[in-house]
Amino acid sequence: MNRPRFDVTAIGEVMLRYSVPVGERLERAQNLAIHPGGAEANLLGALATMGRRCAWISGLPDNPLGRLVENHLRLAKVETNGIVWSEEGRVGTYYLEFATPPRATQVYYDRADSCAARLTPNQIDWEYTLDTRLIHLTGITPALSPSCLALTQEAIRRARQAGVAVSFDINYRGKLWSEARAAEVLAPLIQGVDILSCGQGDAARLFGATGTPEEAIHRLAALSQAKTVVTSLSDEGVMAWDGRNFFHAPARPVQIIDRLGAGDALAAGVIHGWLDGDLANGLQVGTALAAICLSIHGDVVITTPAEVAAVMK
């Protein structure tokens, strides 16, 4: 059997993040920092830094902002030949006002009707997308539009037919849909996936998976029949279950510069270990990647395997 072209592919949206420095307010902003980011692309960027072959599939407008996003992925060594380019349309954006106590950081979204949200299943090159060991999807994409829900359903159906492993990160976004609607839509999608990732809060809100981390994981496993279940424990690190054993890795000490993207970096490490058949080490890589991501600006972690190894030591 021929080796798949990619280790991991992912379908999802990238938005442009416009942010002001700590201590400044958006309403008085004169300069904005631009950082492209999206859960699936962030994960691929982290995996690419670990030497994995990755491809991102999405929709972008054929204009400078669309090309900015593509350039960002290329710099991260993620292949972009799966992008569906449009003559019309837009890139979703969001505006971030960093803050320190007593103020809370504020986020303002402007993402409706983006090129990614307009994608339909028949626009995807499925042969290219599924030439991979694993496809990664999140609960963000089916919340974007009815066509993106159909796209997610089709990706899972085709992956199963092709014998491609599926990773699914719940990644609930309350500004996109209600908890009840998310649970209704996502429960069928996660049936039998190879890796199910779900944070403690999402597990409780959407699926009633409460109690100890072990109890929540067992609840998620019973609900989904997923082969591997992973849950982030915030400051307590991450825990995973492979159907037989539990694995835990504590969070690493870090001086936080930018919180965005750390969860995606963590998930990337877990997948990296899973691909090697070493889930326990994957959790350790994940906490190291997350710590590095927290220490730098931007949604995509910029690092090297050597730096990750140093942090792990």
Overall pLDDT: 95
Uncertain segments: none
* Helix-strand pattern: EEEHEHEEEHEHHEHEHHEEEHHH
User: Structural class of the secondary structure composition?
Assistant: alpha/beta
Radius of gyration: 18 Å
Estimate what percentage of residues fall within beta strands.
15-25%
> What's the total number of strands?
13
Q: Based on CA inertia axes, which overall geometry fits? A: globular
Descriptive account of the structure:
This protein is of the alpha/beta class. 37% of the residues lie in helices and 23% in strands. The strands form two sheets. Strands 5-4-1-8-9-10-11-12-13 form a nine-stranded mixed sheet, sandwiched between helices. A four-stranded mixed sheet has the order 3-2-6-7. A hairpin with a 5-residue loop joins strand 11 and strand 12 (238-241). Helix 7 (200-207) packs across helix 8 (213-224).
